[in-house]
Known about the structure:
The structure holds two protein chains of two kinds. By secondary structure, chain A is of the alpha+beta class. Helices cover 37% and strands 14% of the residues of chain A. In chain A, the strands form eight sheets. A three-stranded antiparallel beta sheet of chain A has the order 3-4-5. In chain A, strands 16-17-18 form a three-stranded antiparallel beta sheet. The termini of chain B are far apart.
Amino acid sequence: MTIQTPNGFSLDTSGRRIVVDPVTRIEGHMRCEVNVDDNNVIRNAVSTGTMWRGLEVILKGRDPRDAWAFVERICGVCTGCHALASVRSVENALDIKIPFNAHLIREIMAKTLQWQDHVVHFYHLHALDWVNPVNALKADSKATSALQQMVSPAHPMSSPGYFRDIQNRLKKFVESGQLGIFKNGYWDNPAYKLPPEADLMAVAPYLEALDFQKEIVKIHTIFGGKNPHPNYMVGGVPCAINMDGDLAAGAPLNMERLNFVHRRIQEAFEFSKNVYIPDIIAIASFYKNWLYGGGLSATNVMDYGDYPVTLHDKSTDQLPGGVILNGNWGEVLPIDPTDHEQIQEFVQHSWYKYPDEAKGLHPWDGSTEPNFVLGAGLKGTRTAIQELDERAKYSWIKSPRWRGNAVEVGPLARYILAYAQGIPFVKDQVDISLAAFNQLAGTSLTPKQALPSTIGRTLARALEAQYCASMMLDDFDRLIGNIKAGDSSTANVAKWDPSTWPKEAKGFGTVAAPRGALGHWIRIKDGKIDNYQCVVPTTWNGSPRDPMGNIGAFEASLMNTPMERPEEPVEILRTLHSFDPCLACSTHIMSEDGRDLATVTVR
Amino acid sequence: MNSNKQILILGIGNLLWADEGFGVRAAEEFGRRYDCGDAATVMDGGTQGVYLLPHIQDCGILILFDAIDYGLAPGTLKVIGDKDVPAFMGAKKISLHQTGFQEVLASALLLGWEPERILLIGVQPEEVEDYGGSLRPVVAAAMDNALAVAAAELQSLGVTVTPRQSAMTDAGSLGPSALDRRAYEDGRPSEDAAFRKGDIRVLALLGAK
């Protein structure tokens, strides 16, 4: 049977069903089912969050000034962005304006996190979807060196001896039987396209990048105090500035510490420029015939916008927000997180109950009553599900929609929005990297052809990391300039005391989080949290179908992708991992039923 | 590569999920009760997974507190050493962070980390599905012994472990004061006010009925 979705996909469930559970290697539970046709091309896709979320409940009645500390614990990979969204929501509710220094320090912290998250995602979690470390053992180190110098002449490490050393380390690790992170790969699957030399070249930074993040995280310690859970503060940042101070532990920010920060930012920029981006382009060039995975990014993308030059002035956002529909890059629609007509969550295909499930609800008005029911087409039993019935409820994730449209969020969405709005840095990056790709691959793809793809999603993340490093250099210069001009203020405590607050207030805070558009909504009553809501990026991307029949971004991205060997779902994992899916905060373990879903395991 | 003698006392887990927070609470309490001078760093690792890698790589001796499903009676303490640690952390997963942490150890080893000693001090949890909850009494009761194991290990390594005269102030604690165990427990909304198995929006509907 073939179903035509309103958002342009033709779903055919007649072919063989493949179940992948779980999909993520870290943080979160996600299951995916697809149907493939006789040629092993994906013709139907079903994405399921297998845990129930429940993150706002514990905040009720607590001090709004403490909320950031709790939301920082929701999830291990998004620590800082939840904290930032939280303090922003409280400041928005209470109309607190933070000092310029605080704005800049927060910007540096947010962009450091973005940079680090993107680098770790690629080299630690995603590279192995493209790169075959076992194949790297066969590489010739001289040829690898030559390849490296060709794709990145400024690469700091490219000698044959260096690659021989990397190869030996890898060999030792594999021979020790500690395959560990490499254990679950499908290393003889033809979906891996790199020659051994490219595999070796790409494995090397796996080691380098993980080593490198040791240094950059120190920026968080300097500004945020505690590591690995930096401190945030409603009204500003919890670090004092005293340029003549000494370096004793816990001492205020001084010139030596700031110089240290500056060096790390420069290194981050150089790493992006000379290693991360060239790696992606080089790998991508071997996958030039594998431009699958675009899904919704080819049509509908969304972000709230972030990185304002002037705080509270959205027109100065360096990654401007908005919505693009139907692939019309010529028109960016404005977005308002407070508009009840714009952002709504639907539950017709989620394990929740609404009085009227044909309608969506804004986060302010939402309800989350669990309703774990399975469709008539289910195969297996309630506690040992073989195949879900996607015509019924099939996920613990809700379906957020923008004016009824399914949209993709994330670095690729932000890059399409920024490119469409002609942001110069972004435009240059995209055009230059695409030219490099076309040259290596012998193709002549346009941004509109290349970006909406799995590779495009992975490239956008690399470009965004570099852009963040570049913006941080500006933030740093402005911070130094402002301090030198005599402003050492880092916090506005005029409204610290709850007695200065209105009896009731509500606000929201948004952040361009590493995985996409993050929003927190807060209601404050009598100085306490009355209601708190988070709508996280993976809820947007991982959403199931909505009442209109639109499929979500994960589902759309898998459509029409051919699989080499359906029993080895390299292609599914590659595309889903390109979203950097993280379900720890969009869902959470609920019950035995929910937990028992995780039974059919292909990988 | 990093074979210096830096000692890291690391608590991992999610303190928002009742006994899942044992590791973090144990590290927090260790820092509150004992002073090891500059010989050891006490850290609340939360569920940071791969982001803890830099700290792991920097240490030569790793003492880990965690809640682990050993299939024993709740509150049972089990101590695992060195090469057995990664296998144990992957054997029976009760939570998300363990998957991450096994990989962190594997990555650290791949990067050339050569620990002199890894000691995993684990406790069998009783309840891990109570959102916003704290340690169950039987698990909290294992705390003293867990801390004693860590202190004894440090002493055998030649570290001077001095009991503190009085509890540390907020300024010296591992996390923000709002997350200190007592504040966390005392500030918990009632079950009527905040459904513990899910999020707040359940209430909006219940109230409307």
